[in-house]
Amino acid sequence: MEYKIVITGVTGAGKTTAIRAVSEIEPVSTDVGNHDAAVAKEFTTVGLDYGEITLSNGHVLRLYGTPGQVRFEFMWQILAKGALGLIILMDNSQENALASLDTYLDSFSELIDRTACVVGVGRLESHPQPDLDSYAARLAQRNVHCPVVPVDVRRKADVLMLFDLLLTQLELKTETADDFS
Amino acid sequence: MIFHDSMRDAVGQVIDKLVEAVGAVRAVVVSSEDGFELVSRASDKSHVSRLSAMASSMTALGAMAGEECKIGDFRSITLEAEEGVILLLQARRPDGNLILSVIAESKAIIGQVLFYSKRAAEQLQQV
């Protein structure tokens, strides 16, 4: 079984890093020089990132990372097609984190409704606010039911945990759907 | 990259010459490789910023496909559609690569559009 998983979230949250941390193949990356003064980083993804990982149960996850900036929203729509789950990565050191979360919840609402979603929040230790409860409250307010967890995308174990949570969510959703069918 | 006015002017001159040389051009946009518009000439300006971002994504994906297939460095993409043609070319610069997007109507002669666009891309490397 193969799953297409989309990893999105704010610029600088570490989508490219997360895929690089877990991919078994050399990841495909479309990073170019960043010219946006509002974002303090040298390179930025403008197309997509791609990586693959085989889980212990033999399932293969095909990982698609999106660009973070809203001006690349057309890539979000392209990459969401046929996906079986969404991971949203947030960077708590950036201002207006909850408002940023809304941007991704809005743009990926169809995918979130259809499949499952997990939110991973980075740099919580250095920037504790907003805390995970605030994220959870925001998601509940938006009627989105998904786990919110702290994550360090440089750590393979952290990224794998996001996939575990996502697949659990997917299974729960499928079972619930079966109950009503 | 900081887009100085003098650079904008020089880039503007290059693309004005391109528009003049090639008939039936709907739009010409020069943007940074991460999708910011630098200079454009278009009958309808409303699409320019989105087009800049799309040109950035397409060029980056094209470059990766070329690398995957081991056919060397990226030069250009030609996109043919029912009613027109889009050419995307890269101008390599030490201060950051630029992307030249040329949108021509189907009545334009593709070979001619490609010839003048490539020449313009070469000039963009020098300005």
Secondary-structure arrangement, i.e. CATH architecture of chain B: 2-Layer Sandwich
| Main β-sheet description of chain A | 7 strands, mixed
Q: Tell me about the largest β-sheet of chain B.
A: 5 strands, antiparallel
Neighbour order of strands in the largest sheet of chain A? 2-3-4-1-5-6-7
> How many separate structural domains of chain B?
1
Instruction: Give unreliable regions of chain A as ranges.
Output: none
Morphology call of chain B: globular
Number of helices of chain B: 3
pLDDT averaged over residues of chain A: 94
Question: What does this molecule look like?
Answer:
The complex is a heterodimer of chains A (181) and B (127). Chain A is of the alpha/beta class. Chain A contains six helices and seven strands; from the N terminus they run E-H-E-E-E-H-E-H-H-E-H-E-H. Chain A has helices spanning 15-22, 73-80, 97-107, 109-114, 132-141, 156-180, and strands at residues 2-9, 28-33, 43-54, 60-65, 85-91, 117-122, 148-150. Chain A has a seven-stranded mixed beta sheet, with helices on both faces. Chain B is built from three helices and five strands. Chain B has helices spanning 5-21, 48-68, 110-126, and strands at 25-32, 37-42, 76-81, 84-91, 98-105. In chain B, strands 2-1-5-4-3 form a five-stranded antiparallel beta sheet, sandwiched between helices. In chain B, helix 1 packs antiparallel against helix 3 (110-126). The radius of gyration of chain B is 14 Å and the shape is globular. The two termini of chain B are 14 Å apart. Chains A and B meet through strand 2 and strand 3 of A and helix 2 of B.
